[in-house]
Amino acid sequence: MSDSVFKDVQNAPPIQVFQLTKLFTESTDPNKVNLGVGAYRTEEGKPWVLPVVQTAELQMANDKTLNHEYLPVAGLPDFRQAATRLLLGPSHKVIAENRVESFQALGGTGALKLGASFLKNVLNFDVVYVSDPTWENHNGVFKGAGFSDVRTYRYWDSETRGLNFSGMCEDLSNAPENSVIILHGVAHNPTGVDPTKEQWTKIAQICNEKKLFVFLDCAYQGFASGNLDEDGWASRFFADQNIDLFVAQSFSKNFGLYNERIGNLVVVTKDPSKLAEIRSQMEIQIRIMWSNPPCHGGRIVATVLNNSTYYEEWKGQIVTMASRIKKMRQELLDNLKKLGTPGNWDHITKQIGMFSYTGLTEKQVEYLKSKNIFLLSSGRISMCGLTSKNVAFVAKTMDEAIRAYPRSVL
């Protein structure tokens, strides 16, 4: 028998965050903790289906007018329009001036890939900058879209456990014209560190002066503060700047629709006369990737956002999630302080959103994993995996790891 065409295929490295979930599931330790996956968990450590989502699904199930026909290539209009209003605010000038269009995508990842493919295939961009560190998939998405030059700009300051703003500004100022700049719209992943509004203003000024194309990734609207308007501030601010702009929007976290893969690519243009051409070219990119999007998740989001009663209920449930995350940040910090853990850990409560970039070293992370506390090797933890029942155990184990494997700066 002749050799298989696949004979030289090698095992790819495991995707770390999903490997951690596998290890967690296989562990028989009753005290095991999963701090890897970016998904909300209740105080009991269980997934949460938002009650308003259940209400919307029941309404949909009883609606005999619904069918399973193909959606338009660009997606469900009711969803796209409502999602754009949520992101930018219903009275934003780009909506009033007809300078915005949106395209339903397969989660935030799909929105990023769609935007990247358009930028590469239609506009011939080839240089993209991502923060150091960033969500690991940013690199893969843009390389997969054909970008040959993926660069980084400084972001994390390991000494202050905060933003290296001067380094960020310097790197953006030195970027060549027509580079794509990926910015995290709110609740930066993995660090949980966002620029202030004054710093955002400076960043926008640099991007405008250097003719850099801004591509915002907004995956956590509502998760940072519990306030949708506050968490949408950066996206709205950049849309105010009279620039061309992409924003990738995700509803995985704030609706708990992780496996429905519901996202939206918002396109803002300085020139409303080009919307038809943008739409036609974007639909070609969609056609060769997923042809047209699935309906269920988009219809859930549209049902909630377009019903004032459901919308108010949903906003309350976002506050529930954001408040629990903040509570876990405070409890983790309190426990570390009680233990006298070496170093200053105030950054845990200064950071925002789903994740905390703890600053733990790889050796310290390996110690935690040996105790069946699973987290990324970078030291990023999902605050959603903490509960009032396990936070003391996690803090105690962190304390042990830090004392066993000290570093010079903590």
Task: Please tell me about this protein's structure.
By secondary structure, the chain is of the alpha/beta class. 43% of the residues lie in helices and 14% in strands. It has 16 helices and 13 strands. It has helices spanning 16-26, 51-61, 77-88, 93-96, 107-121, 137-144, 165-173, 197-209, 228-231, 233-239, 275-289, 296-305, 308-339, 347-350, 362-370, 391-404, and strands spanning 33-34, 100-106, 127-132, 149-154, 156-157, 162-163, 180-184, 213-218, 245-250, 262-268, 355-357, 373-374, 380-382. Strands 2-10-9-8-7-3-4 form a seven-stranded mixed sheet, with helices on both faces. Strand 3, helix 6 and strand 4 (149-154) form a beta-alpha-beta unit. Helix 15 (362-370) crosses helix 16 (391-404). The longest helix is centred in the last third of the chain and has 32 residues, at 308-339. It is globular and about 65 Å long. The mean pLDDT is 95.
Give a summary of the structure in a few sentences.
The chain is of the alpha/beta class and 410 residues long.
Which descriptors apply to this entry?
seven-stranded mixed sheet; alpha/beta; 43% helix; 14% strand; single chain; 410 residues; two-stranded parallel sheet
Q: What is the helical fraction, as a range of percent? A: 40-55%
Order of helices and strands: HEHHHEHEHEEEHEHEHHEEHHHHEHEEH
What fraction of the residues are assigned to beta strands by DSSP? 5-15%
Low-pLDDT residue intervals, each spanning 5 or more residues = none
In the sheet with the most strands, the strands line up as 2-10-9-8-7-3-4
Number of strands: 13
**What's the overall geometry?**
globular
Mean pLDDT: 95
Largest sheet: 7 strands, mixed
Structural class: alpha/beta
CA-atom Rg in angstroms: 22 Å
For the termini, the CA-CA separation is 60 Å
Number of DSSP helices?
16
